[in-house]
Amino acid sequence: MKRFKNIKDRVDILSLDISASCTGWSVMNYKEEVFIYGTIKTNPKHSTASRLDKFRDELKFILSRYKPSEVVIEDTFVGANPAVNKLLSKFAGVAEQTIFEYCKFPPYVVSNKTVKSFFKVKDKDGLFLVVTDILEWDTNIYTFRKFNDIVDSIGQLVYCCNDILKTKQFRTEHDYGYRFWF
Predict the structure, then answer these.
(1) Number of folded domains in the chain?
(2) Global pTM?
């Protein structure tokens, strides 16, 4: 389901890799065909309400600055720890509500398994290596520890543009496998 009518309507697409401590975000700027990225960090020593408020304020700033025509977020990861699941669900809920309040449309929600499958990788390490390789980022500078959340959001954004929105083709299939274009 495309919410824009033509290329002039497509300004920016925002992707969020939601986390309670460090949410990676990236924007595909169509006019310049570049990725803009960053993180939203909250302090685990603060109360949950305070962290959610900071997250919401920073997300509203990003939404007002880039005015995305589409937003994609990662589906909430369900792990073995119920307390972590509850906390992540709160952040995801705040994100969905804030996006809807500001943009007047809900975000696309995609599974991290779908994104990994798109890039033909098994885990977060593999996704990091593939995306940093495609972007030609020096992994001595762009380390997994510091840029993992951003790389996840870029991978998700590429998948969304290529397979959901079909606005920009980043992957082509060849006899020998896939080739990615950035």
Answers:
(1) 1
(2) 0.86
Query: Across the strands, what pairs with 7?
Result: none
Tell me if 1 is assigned to some domain. Answer: no
Between the CA of residue 82 and those of 39, 106, 113, 146, what are the distances in Å? 25, 26, 20, 26
Confidence at 1, pLDDT banded by 50, 70, 90 = very low
Q: Is residue 152 part of a domain?
A: yes
The residues, ordered by sequence, that sit 6+ positions from 165 with a Cβ below 8 Å of its Cβ are 2, 13, 70
Cα distance between residue 162 and residue 13, in whole Å = 12
pLDDT (tens digit per residue) in 61-113: 999 999 999 999 999 877 778 999 999 999 999 999 999 999 999 999 999 89
CA distance 94 to 66: 19
Which sign does the torsion angle of CA 52, 55, 57, 60 carry? negative
The answer to whether 89 touches 109, Cβ cutoff 8 Å, is no
Instruction: Please report whether residue 25 resides in a domain.
Output: yes
- CATH number of the domain at 162, please: 3.30.420.10
pLDDT digits (tens, 9 = 90+) for 116-135: 999 889 999 999 998 898 88
DSSP summary character for residue 140? T
Residue 44's domain spans which residues?
A: 7-180
